[in-house]
Amino acid sequence: MQGYNKSKDLTLIVDVGTNAEILLGNKQRVLACSSPTGPAFEGAQISSGQRAAPGAIERVEIDPKSKEPRFKVIGSDLWSDESGFDESIKKIGITGICGSGIIEAVAEMRIAGLLDESGLIGSPEATGTARSKPDGRTYSYELYANKDASQPAIQVTQGDIRAIQLAKSALYAGAKLLMDEMEVDSVDKVVLAGAFGAHISSKHAMILGMIPDVSLKNVTSAGNAAGTGARIALCNINARSEIEQIVGKITKVETAVEPKFQEHFVAANAIPHKHDPFTELRKVVQIPSPSFNALSGKNGKLGRRRRRA
Predict the structure, then answer these.
(1) Residue 24: strand pairing partners
(2) Residue 6 CB-density burial (10 A; 0-12 exposed, 13-18 middle, 19+ buried)
(3) Same domain, yes or no, for 147 and 169?
(4) In three state form, how does the secondary structure of 54-93 look?
(5) pLDDT tens-place string over residues 47-65
């Protein structure tokens, strides 16, 4: 990430957290903004959400044909369908799902046809799987049925989807505002910064619509960039002086007062996006186009749509 302001490549840098800190720039100009994503990416406001600790589901894959999931849990190196998995988690159990896990779960649901563009979960009849279960007036996807009957199943609920949509829409809208200010429709590179950013799958982040469309080979992780920058500033006087000069040249964009923020936010509610085509992503991932906004019957819906986009 060091020296991005000296490169001709237009680079988007995102520090994912409760507030997404976003930079967009090259050697000609650098812009910055903060976007209020909320705590959903950290497992909060998620029905089975928890912090990234032993027992948390951190990786998810869903077979597009069978709709059956498999997953990895922090504390075990095995996938849930591999021999020895049950023994490997005997002491830690399966206790919930963390931020990286819920991102992958929602993205996998989308490409498996369990979730439509609007974020609506389909019924068992519409999706072809009994893992789609009635949940009040909507549906949930059962990721893990706890073998201990006294413990609840780990599900991805319609409320979970909505929380992730709100978070990712705020992040994407912030990035789009910077792109508007830069007068560009695309970027050359994306860097995911922060401790959480190091654990996010770039492919799943793009399927979800968290970040703008770009070749996946140009999406990288910078780890704890803020901590690294602080150490550089403390240990190198010349670097500290350079940092001060760069900071003085950065243009800050206030998302709260930008009239187009709401427009970008609403369009980004769709997964991956209502208007942006994501052509680079579609070269490597097939995204189906189901629509579950229908009356019950052949499409298996409980009734008309019951939430706003």
Answers:
(1) 12, 31
(2) exposed
(3) no
(4) CCEEEEEEECCCCCCEEEEECCCCCECCCCCHHHHCCCCC
(5) 999 999 999 999 999 999 9
* 227 and 150 fall within a common domain: no
How many structural domains is the chain composed of? 2
Peptide bond into 272 cis (omega under 30): yes
Tell me which residue range forms the domain holding 108. Answer: 41-156
- Tens of pLDDT, residue by residue over 157-202, are 999 999 999 999 999 999 999 999 999 999 999 999 987 778 899 9
Q: Which CATH number covers residue 184?
A: 3.30.420
Sign of CA dihedral 201, 216, 161, 18: positive
pLDDT band at 203 (very low <50, low <70, confident <90, very high): very high
- 139 and 171 co-located in one domain: no
Instruction: For residues 193 and 173, state if they share a domain.
Output: yes
